[in-house]
Amino acid sequence: MVAVPRLTPRATTPSSSDAAPADFAQAAIIGDVHGCGVELRELLADLDRARGHIPLVFVGDLFTKGPLPHAVVREILARREAGQAIRLVCGNHDQRMLLAIVQVEAGVDVDHLPRTERLTWHILHKKRVLAEATELLVEANETIEVSSTLPPRRYTVIHGGIEPKLGLARTPDQVKIHLKAEGDEPHWWERYRGDDGLLIVGHKPLLQPLILRSKSLEPIVANVDTGCAYGNMLTAYLPGEDRLMSVPSRQPRGEQYRALRVADATGSTRRGLRERTAGERVGG
Ligand SMILES: [Mn+2]
C-alpha cells in the first residue's frame, strides 16, 4: 500500500504572488536544478551571503534525474516559510513528473512509470515529501512564464524559448516549455533580436551560462542551464545586476554532456558576435 499525495486546491499553495511585484526586479533566476539538492543549497547559500534572501525564480525541471529531489522540496519550502519570495516556472520535466504522480494516484503501478519518474517518485515517497512535491509541481505547471517589467531591466523567464517570428505573446505555451535545438539545428536565440526584452531560459544544457547581447550590450537572452545533473554546474543569473553566479556540480559527468561539441556546449552561434559568457562578466 502506498501513500497517495492529496492534490490540494491551488489557493492553499504557498505562493510568492503575495510578494510585491517590485521584489522580482532584483530576483535571482535559478537554472535547471534536476534534483541536485546539495548544489542548490550551496548556490543559495552563496546568494544569501552576497545579496540576502532576494526573490528566486526557478526556470523549471526541479526534481527528476538528480539524487536529492527531496532536498530541493525542503529547500524551497523552508525558504518560503522564512518569507523568501519564490516562483516556479514550468519545465518539461515538471510536466512529466506531475503526470507520473497523477497517474499513480489514478491507480497506475509505480513500477510502470518511465524510469526517471519512477526513481524520483520512490525517493520523494521514501523521504515523505511526495505531497509537498506534488503541490510544487502543480504550481509550476500553472506558471508558463514569470515577468518583471520594473527597472532596472524588463525580463521574462520561460523554460525553453520562443519562436522569434511569433514573439513572446504568440508563441504557444508548449513551445515555450519545450523549444530546444537538436543536433545541428540553430538555437532559437540566434534569430532573436530582443523585441520582447531579456528572455531568461534553461532547458538546453551548456558548458557555460550564455548571455546574448544587443549591440548596446544590453542582455537579451540568458540561458542558465549549465547541466548540473550532468556533472557540470548550477547557475543563477541576477537580471537586475546582469550578474552570474555558479557552483560546481557534484554529479558524475553524463555521457550526453561529454559528447557535446564545444560550439553547442558554449551556445556559440555561427554569427557569434553578440555573445558574452560567464568569463566576461559584466556589472558583477
Ligand atoms: Mn528541460
Keywords, please?
disordered N terminus; disordered C terminus; 6-stranded mixed beta sheet; Purple Acid Phosphatase, chain A, domain 2; 284 residues; alpha/beta; binds manganese (II) ion; 5-stranded mixed beta sheet
What do you see in this structure?
With 284 residues, the chain is an alpha/beta fold. The chain has one domain: Metallo-dependent phosphatases (Purple Acid Phosphatase, chain A, domain 2), CATH 3.60.21.10. 30% of the residues lie in helices and 15% in strands. It has helices at residues 37-51, 69-81, 92-105, 115-126, 130-141, 167-170, 173-178, 255-258, 262-265; strands at residues 28-30, 56-58, 86-88, 146-148, 155-157, 198-201, 210-213, 219-223, 233-238, 243-248, 275-277. A six-stranded mixed beta sheet has the order 4-5-6-8-7-11, with no helix packed on it. Strand 4 (146-148) and strand 5 (155-157) form a beta hairpin. The longest helix is centred in the first third of the chain and has 15 residues, at 37-51. Residues 1-22 and 268-284 have low confidence and may be disordered. The structure holds manganese (II) ion.
Order of secondary-structure elements:
EHEHEHHHEEHHEEEEEHHE
Bound molecules: manganese (II) ion
CATH superfamily: Metallo-dependent phosphatases
Instruction: Please tell me what the overall shape is.
Output: globular
Strand fraction equals 15-25%
Characterize the main sheet.
Answer: 6 strands, mixed
Number of helices: 9
Write down the overall mean pLDDT: 87
Q: What count of domains describes the coordinates?
A: 1
Oligomeric status: single chain
Poorly predicted runs are 1-22, 268-284
- Largest beta sheet: strand ordering: 4-5-6-8-7-11
The top-level CATH class is: Alpha Beta
CATH second-level architecture: 4-Layer Sandwich
Give the CA-CA distance, first to last residue: 52 Å
CATH domain topology:
Purple Acid Phosphatase, chain A, domain 2
Helix content: 25-40%
**Global structural class:** alpha/beta
Radius of gyration: 18 Å
* Count of DSSP strands: 11
